[in-house]
């Protein structure tokens, strides 16, 4: 499979996915790292790894989500991508775009979905007094953070945790979970991972 990795920031998940795909026998290869943010640190990290990069700045398409996504699609088609991994990608995609990539687009969300879709997931889990937090890799559908889960990883919420300390603990698990799920998914196995 040819995988396009979409980022908006540092791209730590993108780096882990690309490193995983470099292992011998892996059924997928990274063909593009695409960001909506021209200043995303992940672009330089992708270039260092020899992965083609592109930017489609959403600020160039004010109030024109379709126009933005049309540019994304053009870059994706030019790259030959047949699978998308959203990895710290912070733009909401329209139903049209998600339908175009139905069954071929994954995302990692930093909560134990269906709890805490959307933003500020760690603070919300702490404020709720939850004992556990974690991350979910899921197929992307038109409903935000609601697609079929392909895998989850849990971490305990510790006394005195802040959103930052919890996010750091969850991120370690993201870096393990996402490559595992991508390998299975790219091999044609869509059954969820259950540890
Ligand atoms: C991570 O917390 C991830 O869960 C969320 O974006 C954050 C940054 O990811 N999707 P990355 O370091 O840019 O991969």
TrEMBL record:
Annotated positions binding N(1)-(5-phospho-beta-D-ribosyl)glycinamide: 11-13
Catalytic activity: N(1)-(5-phospho-beta-D-ribosyl)glycinamide + (6R)-10-formyltetrahydrofolate = N(2)-formyl-N(1)-(5-phospho-beta-D-ribosyl)glycinamide + (6S)-5,6,7,8-tetrahydrofolate + H(+)
Active site: 109
Gene3D superfamilies tied to this protein: Formyl transferase, N-terminal domain
EC number(s) reported in the record: 2.1.2.2
UniProt xrefs under InterPro entries: Formyl_transf_N (IPR002376), Formyl_transf_N_sf (IPR036477), GART (IPR004607), GART_AS (IPR001555)
UniProt cross-references to SUPFAM superfamilies, sorted A to Z: Formyltransferase
Binding, (6R)-10-formyltetrahydrofolate: 65, 90-93, 107
Associated pathway: Purine metabolism; IMP biosynthesis via de novo pathway; N(2)-formyl-N(1)-(5-phospho-D-ribosyl)glycinamide from N(1)-(5-phospho-D-ribosyl)glycinamide (10-formyl THF route): step 1/1
Residues the record marks as site: Raises pKa of active site His: 145
A GO term for molecular function: phosphoribosylglycinamide formyltransferase activity
Formyl transferase N-terminal domain boundaries: 2-182
Function: Catalyzes the transfer of a formyl group from 10-formyltetrahydrofolate to 5-phospho-ribosyl-glycinamide (GAR), producing 5-phospho-ribosyl-N-formylglycinamide (FGAR) and tetrahydrofolate.
NCBIfam families (alphabetical): PurN
PANTHER family: PHOSPHORIBOSYLGLYCINAMIDE FORMYLTRANSFERASE
Family: Belongs to the GART family.
Protein name: Phosphoribosylglycinamide formyltransferase
Organism (species): Harenicola maris
């Amino acid at each position: 499979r040819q995988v396009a990795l979409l980022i908006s920031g540092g791209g730590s998940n993108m780096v882990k996915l690309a490193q995983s795909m470099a292992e011998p026998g892996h059924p997928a290869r990274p063909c593009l790292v695409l960001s909506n943010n021209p200043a995303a640190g992940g672009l330089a990290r992708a270039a260092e790894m020899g992965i083609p990069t592109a930017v489609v700045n959403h600020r160039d398409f004010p109030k024109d989500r379709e126009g933005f996504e049309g540019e994304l699609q053009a870059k994706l088609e030019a790259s030959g991508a047949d699978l998308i991994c959203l990895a710290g990608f912070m733009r909401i995609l329209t139903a049209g775009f998600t339908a175009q990539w139905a069954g071929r687009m994954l995302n990692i969300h930093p909560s134990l979905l269906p709890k805490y879709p959307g933003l500020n997931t760690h603070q919300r889990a702490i404020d709720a007094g939850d004992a556990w937090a974690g991350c979910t890799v899921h197929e992307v559908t038109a409903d935000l953070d609601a697609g079929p889960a392909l895998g989850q990883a849990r971490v305990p919420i510790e006394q005195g945790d802040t959103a930052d300390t919890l996010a750091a603990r969850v991120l370690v698990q993201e870096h393990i979970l996402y490559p595992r799920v991508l390998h299975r998914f790219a091999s044609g196995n869509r059954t969820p991972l259950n540890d």
